[in-house]
Amino acid sequence: VSVVVLYNGPGDAPAEIDAWRGYLKACDPGIDFRVWPDTGPLAEIDYCLAWMSKPGDLARYPNLKAIFWLGAGVDHLLKDRELPRHVPIVRLVDPGLTAGMTEYVLQHVLRYHLRQPEFDAFQRQGLWRKLDIPLAKDRRVGLMGLGVLGRDAAAKLVDLGFAVAAWSASPKTMADVACFHGDEQLMAFLGRTEILVCLLPLTPATAGIINARTLAALPRGACVINAARGGHVVDADLVAALDRGHIAHATLDVFTEEPLPVEHAFWRHPQITLTPHVASQTIAETASQVVIEGLKAVRAGRLPANVVDLQKGY
Ligand code: NAP
Ligand code: GLV
Is the pTM of this model over 0.70? Predict the structure, then answer.
């Protein structure tokens, strides 16, 4: 029997917890599924499925064999100084999570491509006014991050005909995507990007990467979509670039402090569209299947897929 504890599920709603229990037990009725804080003796716990754990919490299970993090980004987890680093830490790579993010990216890229914020402003003024809209092939979209999420979004943007580029840490190739990498190619990537989409992990190398210098490297009138982490953006620099019109509009899903404090300038900024960290959400139906595969691998003595590289921090 493997004992699995769900720690701070992504949705703490009883229905979501029941869904996790149902999917796991349907695959392996032998799983003893417990929900924090009703863990029973801590030494009995073999695996933790965790999300937004508090520092030190995951160090309390002396016989832990793996941690399954129920999100793609592990920046929060890696801040835990007592994190048990000797067990595999598996991040969530899940077709449901990927599909959700691609929908979000497509929605906001299309909205900017089709100049919807300008038409919204005309509507508020009762103005019947047409604007030119270029063909997608003449709209340059740039993705920061060409990992699991970046690749899927890039492929669908290519399908729609956009001129897509991407920027990653290491060199990459992808059909119909202009690939840039490393610090030395960042400015060239930004200089050709009219709609910037951030899908990077938050690490010391990427913190504050959307700042006065990088925003200035985008062409005038560019739009920014940040669906990665709030820490990627220097908030005051973004507001300044919007205020002087260099950046036309920004869509923000993630914030340095969440929930976004009521007094924050982003809430009321006319050129900002914001959503409350919902770009893509962990859904038990698909995420549980990925976790089950990971559990099977660990129990068979194999390294599961998508183990976090603790050196790289993602
Ligand atoms: P991933 O597969 O690990 O991909 C990360 C990409 O970023 C890779 O292409 C990587 O380059 C690149 N990268 C990392 N550090 C870099 C650097 N210093 N310079 C340039 N490129 C760098 O991650 P993912 O699964 O696509 O997820 C990306 C992020 O999305 C997560 O970390 C999370 O924060 C965020 N997210 C947000 C939501 C939401 O609802 N808002 C939902 C899910 C995920 P290499 O390929 O060369 O390593
Ligand atoms: C959500 O933000 C995730 O990292 O999965």
Answer: yes
